[in-house]
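On clarity, I found the account of how folds are encoded harder to follow than it need be. Since the whole study asks how a given chain folds, the encoding of that fold should be made plain. For the editor and my fellow referees, an illustration may be useful. An entry of this sort, consisting of the sequence and the corresponding backbone structure tokens, reads as follows:

:::
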Amino acid sequence: MSQATFDDDELFDEAATDMRADVERSLEQAREALPEAGAVWETDADNTLGVLNGLKTALDVGDAEEALRDAKKWYTMGKRADAFEDADDLEAAITEVEELIADIEAAHEAVGDLTGTIPAIKNALEDADEDE
């Protein structure tokens, strides 16, 4: 029975390839978890509050943050181990997804603020109309 032998370099190269694949897979999962453009753009609500509630729901990043965290974890591990021959593309992809998530979360927060403010403004305007 023959036993395969691996030298350290061969094992390291294999591990580096696996780490790159893990980063790429996690980035893909993060992108897939992001909201679809149509869900953010289209609406069938009857009023402003309905539009805002729908938009707030559509701007949920879901599991994208967790998948991005996994990508960053494996990227950091590989980078510190100097396992990647060229990791510029991975770093750029991580930054792109990270910025997109941050933008979506900022919009989600802004819409949340409006969702709380618009009904109060409507009520104040109705009260002002009644006072006349």
User: Anything to note?
Assistant: The chain has five helices and no strands. The radius of gyration is 24 Å.
